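Box S1 | Example of a co-folding query
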Amino acid sequence: MKLEKLNLEGVEDKRPILIAGPCSAETEEQTLQTARELAAQGVQIFRAGIWKPRTKPGGFEGVGTEGLVWLKKVKKETGMYTSTEVATAKHVYEALKYGVDVLWIGARTTANPFAVQEIADALQGVDIPVLIKNPVNPDLELWIGAVERIYNAGLRRIGAIHRGFSSYDKKVYRNQPQWHLPIELKRRIPAIQLLCDPSHIGGKRDLILPLSQQAMDLQFDGLIIETHCKPDEAWSDKDQQVTPHQLNEILNKLVLRDMAQSTESLTDLRKLIDEIDKEILEALARRMRVSEEIGMYKKEHNISILQSTRYDEILAKRVAMGESLGMSTEFMRVMVAAIHEESIRKQMDVMNK
Ligand code: PEP
Ligand code: MN
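Box S1 (continued) | Returned holo structure for manganese (II) ion
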């Protein structure tokens, strides 16, 4: 894929690329007021949802086309670029008709290949930046598939937005960050510009700064942050919106660290990591060979492969041991389960040979 940067004239290509504005355009007054305050702070790209995908019926579903007139006014009055979410071909045609500069595809839409294809078809031959949010489910291929569909329609200015993944567990985050997924997306498509949406990941104002910092430390290119002139009165997502003033404070607190300049001590430490990884893999391979021998023994003596009491014992002991060595329970569980699964697979091979 030969992607290009978002390339908005007059927007400096420096980290973080910033998009800010309300979750939804609610009234002309609220949209313009928020935009004016943001523009006064130097924000160059404005966001506002015009059509809102709501979990349950009866919620505020966006003002529709009327709001596009307000976005046009924002552009005219403040000079900011405007952006909104599109979920259907009709949204695309309307947004283009009113001169919206950047489109994004929402998380629920990315999860649906029919909808993404419909959007791609509507965008055929149009040169506009499109940002693709991750699908609600943690499926990297589906996310990449959506990028490919838009790319195949001839668009090149494609970016991605990490907004976290739905989960039953909402204790800390509204959507689990699962940082390894956007990192893997960037590894697979290195030229894609990657933005983080800390508002929808955290679901709470207080989490915007730490999540934004984490994104910057992971070399994300930009941030999209929900900002409202009166967050507590917002018609959607009020707990996660901040005022333009609060946004400014958050941005001032962000520490931007450079891409690792390979200093000598860093190079040495990385060599050490390479060595240790080699030792770990060799030890694992030895363990697998022992496993195969056990498999042969079980085959000769007609014993079944999975001895669940033995597995329970291994799991409990290894997790406790890992914890005492300073590793998390969750990490130990995942690692022991993965090793055990590979062992079982090896034994199956032996048994069925
Ligand atoms: C939004 O950006 O307001 C939105 C609806 O986001 P998401 O698609 O990430 O839920
Ligand atoms: Mn929102």
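DSSP finds 13 helices and eight strands in the chain. The longest strand covers residues 17-21.
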